[in-house]
Amino acid sequence: MRPLAFVDLETTGATATHDRITEIGIVEVDADGVVREWQQLVNPGMSIPPFIEQLTGISNALVADAPPFESVASEALRRLEGRLFIAHNARFDYGFLKNEFKRLGIPFRAPVLCTVKLSRALFPEHHRHNLDSLIERHGLQAAARHRALADAQLIHQFWQKIHVDRSPEAIETAIQAQNGKLSLPPQLDARLIDELPETAGVYLFYDADGLPLHIGPATDLRKGVLAHFKHKRPSAKEARLAQQVSRIDWVETSGEIGALLTEARLVRQLRPGRPQTPEQPDEICTWMLVDEGNDWLRPQLLPARDLEFSLRSACYGLYRNAKEAHSRLRALADSEKLCRSLLGLEKHAPGQPCAGYSSKSCKGACCGKESLARHTVRLLSALTQQKLVSWPFPGPALIREGDEGHLLDGWRYLGTVRRDEEIDALLAAGRPPFDRDTYKILAKYVGKMTPLAVQRTASPE
To answer: Which CATH number fits domain 4-177: 1.25.40.180, 3.30.420.10, 3.40.50.2000, 3.40.630.30?
Structure first.
């Protein structure tokens, strides 16, 4: 039997790059079956949030006299080295320990096994695989919950239980399946697999010259990256990407929304897979309707860069440039038999039929054969599917996601904050230009937005 380490941590929060460990629990099982246990409170060097105190029972007072992680790092490393790292939601615990060791300049790598995934593989008939479900389902004995050693003991009990209920072959198959059949390119360091977190974020592929090849969002960075190298028969595009990728970086976010917004920003900045030469920005534009009187609404093309997209104004469609916008409007006019002249696409003498009337592609609103009001109604009906969502607030808004907040204004993404005092700095930096991809992301999450009441008091000196 291989040496094992059943591990559980208590922490100040969910983000390994920001939060810190408050308690470590390890159950060591040697190859000959000898079992040792270790539990250690850790001073995180930061305040423990009240809800974490309530959940774990670990208070700021309890860790006040505990050693910092740097004082127990060597002991933790000694107990983990050379062992299979087993934990429930293993990448959480593994990621926190890796980050703590990294802060001290200590490299830490270990083969990892997640008992959540193991339970799903061995007991697929069940839908819930959290630790409380395993306790109930398998009759595990919990000395306590949400304390590090007690939870590590539960994971060890689950390991013992599956070796009674399932065959060694089934268990080994489930273990091997967790990492899958990978075909990592030879130029990539295989140790990368141990580095990848199972958190949301954005991953970036670079070639040997440091140029970006691909940027992708993922709710699970590890799955997102490794999916590129698990194809039995990769497409030509995937095979080409695998041959070229030489380095992989990633940016962790608090959730899916943060990943999508970060991806849009990085794609706009780095332009993966495109020549790294100066490029003219897209002249994103949209149609608005101008009231010309007598029930005639005429489309007017405006650049989206500085528009407010407020509730007082309706906008239709987002186009890369004026050429695309006019082409789409012409196609709409032809399909709905709208008057190109009244749409501003062609010139004609007032009161006279346009060229389209004679070819029966216009119903005659230009020459009184159709009322202007009827023409306007048909235009509005045709544009309905292209109507943009109006910015629903008189000022900025915030989307809370995990322990972060995404600051927005007029469909612009201003940035992400962890503390409320960071908001004023982002607001003072001003709004970036309107971006079509960012709008498409945010329009799906209007229900999660909260209006932000911020009064700016800065005055020029």
So the answer is: 3.30.420.10
